[in-house]
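Work Package 4 report. The design task specified in the project plan requires that, given a folded chain encoded as structure tokens, an amino acid be chosen for each position. We show below one input record used in the internal validation round.
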């Protein structure tokens, strides 16, 4: 951590960005696995709903990643 601080990086901000990114990625992964296992008579309808949520979370994760990339360049 000392090395990061000496380089002028706000370590608390960096940790916060990692935590937010991990939460978004975990949710995306969860919906991906859930979609794979959706089955039964209404399995296709459930898969469609889960796919919409999965894509939305992937978009959030990608937006966070872009924001994170910009913030890292500024640090």
């Amino acid at each position: 951590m000392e090395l990061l601080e000496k380089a002028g990086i706000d370590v608390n901000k960096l940790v916060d960005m990692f935590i937010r990114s991990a939460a978004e990625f975990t949710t995306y992964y969860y919906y991906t696995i859930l979609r794979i296992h959706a089955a039964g008579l209404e399995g296709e309808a459930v898969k469609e709903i889960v796919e919409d949520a999965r894509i939305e979370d992937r978009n959030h994760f990608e937006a966070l990643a872009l924001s994170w990339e910009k913030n890292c360049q500024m640090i």
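Helices lie at 2-6, 11-37, 43-74. Validation will be extended to a larger panel in the next phase.
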